[in-house]
C-alpha cells in the first residue's frame, strides 16, 4: 500500500485537495479529526494537556477550551512546541492504527494522511510520498481572514507562527498550487493521482 502525506500551511486549500483525492478513490485520514479525538473529555491526552497548561484551559463541562488554549500557544513558540510534543505521539499512534486497518482491507490502495504539522513533527518520514499544498501569500491571508473572521493582524500572526510555505515546499515529492481556484486545483490533483496509481508501492503490499 502506498502511504502519502498531505500537508501545507493554514488556509491554502488542503481540505479541497483531500476531498478530491477521496473522490478519486484514496483512503483518507484527517489528522485534525484525530487531534480533536485525542483531547476528548476524560481522555488521557486531555489530562496531559491540563497537567501542562493548567485547569483553566478546561471548560466547566470538562471539555477543552480551544480558544483559551489557542491564545496561549499561538503567541508563544515554546508553549506551542510543548503542546505539540504532547499531542503528536498520540496522533501518530492513532494514524498508524488506522493505516494498518486500511492496509488489511486494501493492500494495493493509496492512503492519504492529511496533517498541517507533518513536516514539523517529522511524521512525514514514515510515509512513501509527500504532497505539499500552497498558494500565493496574499491569497492565503485573504482566505484565512474570511474563513476565521480574523483581522489582517491576527491572520498575519497566525501564518507567521507556522513554518513558511517556501520551506515546506522543499520537502515535497509533489506540489499543488491552489491560487487559481477549484478547477485548476482539481486538474493538478487528478494528474498527481495518476502518478501515485503508477507507483510500484501502490500495487505491492509492503
Report on the architecture of this protein.
This protein is α/β, with parallel strands linked by helices and 206 residues long. It has a single domain, classed as Rossmann fold (3-Layer(aba) Sandwich). 54% of the residues lie in helices and 13% in strands. The protein has ten helices and five strands. It has helices at residues 14-23, 31-37, 44-53, 66-74, 77-105, 118-121, 137-148, 152-160, 165-169, 182-197, and strands at 2-8, 27-30, 110-114, 129-134, 174-177. The protein has a five-stranded parallel β-sheet, sandwiched between helices. The longest helix is centred in the middle third of the chain and has 29 residues, at 77-105. It is globular, with a radius of gyration of 18 Å. The model has no long low-confidence stretch (mean pLDDT 93).
CATH level 3 topology: Rossmann fold
The major β-sheet equals:
5 strands, parallel
Number of helices: 10
Strand elements, count = 5
Q: Indicate the mean pLDDT.
A: 93
Computed structural class: alpha/beta
Tell me, briefly, the overall form. globular
Label the CATH architecture. Answer: 3-Layer(aba) Sandwich
Into which percent range does the helicity of residues fall? 40-55%
Number of domains: 1
> Helices and strands, in N-to-C order?
EHEHHHHEHEHHHEH
Poorly predicted regions: none
Oligomer: single chain
Q: What Rg, in angstroms, do the CA atoms define?
A: 18 Å
CATH superfamily: P-loop containing nucleotide triphosphate hydrolases
In terms of DSSP E residues, the strand content is 5-15%
**First CA to last CA: what distance?**
6 Å
Strand line-up across the major sheet: 2-3-1-4-5
Amino acid at each position: 500500500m502506498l502511504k502519502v502525506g498531505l500537508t501545507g500551511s493554514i488556509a491554502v486549500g488542503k481540505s479541497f485537495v483531500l476531498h478530491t483525492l477521496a473522490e478519486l478513490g484514496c483512503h483518507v485520514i484527517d489528522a485534525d479529526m484525530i487531534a480533536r479525538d485525542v483531547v476528548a473529555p476524560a481522555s488521557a491526552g486531555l489530562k496531559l494537556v491540563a497537567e501542562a497548561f493548567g485547569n483553566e484551559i478546561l471548560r466547566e463541562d470538562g471539555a477543552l477550551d480551544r480558544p483559551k488554549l489557542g491564545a496561549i500557544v499561538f503567541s508563544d513558540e515554546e508553549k506551542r512546541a510543548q503542546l505539540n510534543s504532547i499531542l503528536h505521539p498520540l496522533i501518530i499512534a492513532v494514524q498508524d492504527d488506522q493505516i494498518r486497518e486500511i492496509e488489511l482491507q486494501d493492500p494495493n490502495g493509496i492512503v492519504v494522511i492529511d496533517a498541517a504539522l507533518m513536516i514539523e513533527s517529522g511524521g512525514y518520514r514514515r510515509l512513501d510520498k509527500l504532497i505539499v499544498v500552497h498558494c500565493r501569500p496574499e491569497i492565503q491571508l485573504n482566505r484565512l481572514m474570511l474563513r476565521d473572521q480574523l483581522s489582517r493582524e491576527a491572520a498575519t500572526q497566525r501564518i507567521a507562527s507556522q513554518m513558511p510555505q517556501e520551506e515546506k515546499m522543499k520537502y515535497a515529492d509533489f506540489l499543488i498550487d491552489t491560487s487559481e481556484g477549484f478547477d485548476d486545483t482539481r486538474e493538478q490533483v487528478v494528474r498527481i493521482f495518476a502518478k501515485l496509481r503508477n507507483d510500484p508501492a501502490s500495487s505491492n503490499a509492503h
